[in-house]
Amino acid sequence: MKDYTDTPLESSSLSARVLERIAAEQVTPRPRWAYRLRNRAFWVAALGALAAAAAAMAAVFFILANVEWRYVSVRYGTPASTVMAVLPVAWLVLLLVFLSVGYWNIRHTSRGYRYPLPVVAAMAVVFTILSGAAFFSIGLGQGVEEGFGGHLPLYRPFLVREQSWWSRPEKGFLVGKVSSIAPDFSSFALTTDSGVVWQVEGSDLRAPDMAWLARGGMVRVVGVPRPATSTAPFHACFVLPWEVRGARASLPPLPLAVLSASTSERISNGERSNACKGVGPYRVFRALQDDMR
Amino acid sequence: MSAETNQSGGRRNKGGTRTPVDAHTLTDEDVAQRALEDKELFAILIERYAAKLTRYLARLGVSVPEDREDILQNAFLNAYRNMNSFDPALSFSSWMYRIVHNEAMSFFRRKKARPTVVLAPEDEPLLYAIQDDNADTSAHAERRLSSAELARALTTLPQKYRDILALRFFEERSYEEISDILEMPIGTVSTMIHRAKRALRKELGDRLQ
User: Fold this and answer.
1) pLDDT given for residue B160 in this prediction
2) What's the rounded Cα separation, in Å, for the pair A134 and A26?
3) Are residues B89 and B136 in the same domain?
4) Among A159, A39, A51, which residue's Cα sits nearest to residue A98?
5) Residue A23 pLDDT greater than 80, yes or no
6) I need a labelling partner for A66 at 20 to 30 A (CA). Which of A24, A122, A262, B79 fits?
7) Contact state of B65 with A14 under an 8 Å Cβ cutoff
8) pLDDT value at position A184?
9) Does A37 lie at the interface with B, CB-CB under 8 angstroms?
10) Which residue among B55, B69, B179 sits closest to A14, beta carbon to beta carbon?
C-alpha cells in the first residue's frame, strides 16, 4: 500500500523552499489594519442590515396597527381574504432578506463562525422586533412604509390603498378632511386628498358622528350618493374616525365645532332614515357605533 | 519578571544586557509574532508543522506526495502573508490547520481531483471510535480492519465527513479546535461527527462485525 510514510517530507527543505519563495515573490505580511478594517466592515454591514430589517419591521407594525380590525368584515370580507389583504408580504420578504444579509455578514466576521445559526437568528429577530417597535413608536414605520415603499415596484402604500378603497362615493364611501360644518350639523364639507370638496348632507347624523366631525381632521363617511346636481351630492349616514396609528409627528387638528346641548337633544341615537338603511354594511356600522359609544 | 523579551528573540534584563533566547523554545504564537519582524523565524513554524500537516493532507485524500508539498508550500506562504490576521483567541495550530484545509479544498476544486485517502497503520484509532458510539479515541475494538480497508471506506464518504473524521480521530483535535479549523459552531461539529461516524459504519457494513 502506498502511504505517506513512504515519502517523508523533509521539513527543513520545505522551509528553505518556502523562505526562497517568500524572498523571490517578495511576499510581505499584509498590514494588521487591513484585517481590522475588513472585520469592522462586516460588523457595520451586519448592523446596517439589521437596522434595515428593523425598519422593515416598523413598516410591518405600521400596517398591522392601521388595519381597522373593527371594519374588516365590511372592508375585506372573510377572515381569509382579510389575511391576504393585510399581510405585509413585501415587508416580510424584505425583512427576511435583510436578516439573511445581516447573518451572512456576522458569519464572515473573524469569529462569526462560532455563533450557531439558531442563536444568531433568535437574537436578530428579537433585536429587530424591539428596534422595529421603537422605530414604529417614533413614526418611522410610516416613513419607511410610505417613503421607501412608494419607490418599490408594484407596491402601493397601505394608507393609499385604504384611502382609495374608502374614496368611492358611488359605493357610499367617502374619506377626507372636514373643512366646514353647519352650526346645526345639517351639512358639512369634506375635502378629499385630490382637493375635491364634497358638500355632505348630515340630517341623519347622530351624536357620535357629530363628535368625530367636531373634532376636525380626517374622517371617513358612510352614506348614500345623490344626484350630482343636488346641493349636497352625498347623504351621510355614519361618520367614523380616520386615525393613523404610529403616524409621523403632526399637530392634532383644531376642533371645528362644539357640540351644544340643543344639538345633542335634537338628534338622539335612534334609528336613521330609510335612506341610510339602504347602506350595505348598515348593521355593522350601527353596531360599531354602539360599541364605540 | 526580571527580563523582557524584545522583537528579535533576545531578552533584555534589568541591567540592560541582552541574553539570547532560543526561538525553538518559544510557543508557536510567540514565534509567529516574531516572524513578522524576522521572516527566518518562520522556518521554525514550518519545521514544527510540516510532518503533521503532511499526514493531515494524506488523510484528507491528497494522495500524491508532490501535490501535498505544493499545497503545503502555498499554505505556508499564505500563512506568512496573512500572519497579521492570526487571532490570538485561537491556537496557532488551529489557524494553521484551517489554512491547510482551505488550501486542500481549493486544490480538489481546481484539479477536479477525486480524493484518495492514504492511511498509515497508526491511523486505526478511528476504527475503535466508530465501532462504539460512545467510544473515545482510546477505545479498543476486538476486530481490526486493515488501514487499507478503512482508507477505501473513507474515500467513498462525502468530503465534509472525511474532513471532520480526520480532524477528530486522526489528528485528535478537540471539538473547539475543529470548530476553529472548519469554521463552524461547536454544536454543528458534534452533529457532523455523529453523522460522519454513522456514514462510515454504514460504508464498512459487515466488515466491522
Assistant:
1) 92
2) 54
3) no
4) A51
5) yes
6) A122
7) no
8) 84
9) no
10) B69
CA pair distance A173, A284, nearest whole angstrom: 14
pTM of the model: 0.78
Q: What is the CATH number of the domain that holds A259?
A: 2.40.50.140
CB contact (8 A) between residue B179 and residue A113: yes
Which residues of B fall below an 8 Å CB-CB distance to A?
36, 39-40, 42-43, 46-47, 50-51, 54-55, 57-58, 63, 65, 68-69, 72-73, 76-77, 80-85, 87, 89, 118-120, 147-148, 151, 179, 183-188
Q: Which of A2, A22, A117 sits opposite B39 (nearest CB)?
A: A22
pLDDT at residue A132, rounded to an integer: 96
Contact across the interface for B69 and A9, Cβ inside 8 Å: yes
Identity (one letter) of the amino acid at B180? D
- Residue range A7-15: average pLDDT? 69
Please name the amino acid found at residue A79. P
For residues A74 and A123, state if they share a domain: yes
Domain, as residue range, for A175: 167-292
Yes or no, beta carbons of B46 and A18 under 8 Å apart? yes
Contact B100, B75 (CB under 8 A): yes
**DSSP helix/strand/coil, A273:** coil
Whether A270 has its CB under 8 Å from any CB of chain B: the answer is: no
Shared domain check, A120 and A195 = no
Query: Grid coordinates in use for A124?
Result: 436578530
Confidence of residue B1 (pLDDT cuts 50, 70, 90): very low
β-pairing, B3-5 vs A234-241, is unpaired
Q: Residue B8: inside a domain, yes or no?
A: yes
Set of chain A residues whose Cβ sits within 8 Å of the Cβ of B63: 2
Helices B147-156 and B186-204 pack at an angle, to 10 degrees, of 120
Write out pLDDT tens, residues B66-116.
Answer: 999 999 999 999 999 999 999 888 899 999 999 999 999 999 988 877 788
Structural domain count of chain A? 2
Host domain of residue B180: 121-208
Q: What is the CATH number of the domain that holds B84?
A: 1.10.1740.10
Cell 360599531 sits on residue: A288
* CB spacing of A113 vs B185 below 8 angstroms: yes
ipTM reported for the complex, 2 dp: 0.76
